[in-house]
Design goal:
The chain is mostly helical.
């Protein structure tokens, strides 16, 4: 049965993922940084971003937060033979290829 299915994966550029996470988790919600990390009132976003990146990236090969774990680990790309990996940022460009493979019409997203 698995051979009859199209195995599609959508991946996101790691830098885009990191910047998006910073904007959402730190700038919008202000809840990411480890408690006890205090910044002077005039700290720049760059200074805060540097600490955010240090805390978000995996240490010793292990991500503390699944949002920043390497996608290849979560998707098990070595175990699951994907037919197509589409970059999230360019999914519109790949939609024609996807439709051609699946013989479907244009997909509408909500």
């Amino acid at each position: 049965m698995a051979s009859d299915m199209l195995k599609l994966g959508v991946v996101r550029n790691p830098l885009t993922r990191l910047v998006s996470g910073f904007r959402d988790k730190q700038l919008r919600k202000q809840q990411w940084l480890t408690p006890g990390v205090d910044f002077p009132e005039n700290s720049t976003e760059l200074e805060i971003f540097q600490v955010f990146v240090d805390q978000a990236l995996p240490h010793g090969g292990v991500a503390e937060n699944i949002h920043f774990a390497p996608q290849w680990e979560q998707m098990e790309v070595c175990r699951w033979p994907y037919d197509l990996l589409i970059p999230f940022e360019r999914e519109e460009e790949y939609m024609d290829l996807f439709q051609n493979i699946t013989q479907t019409t244009r997909v509408q997203y909500p």
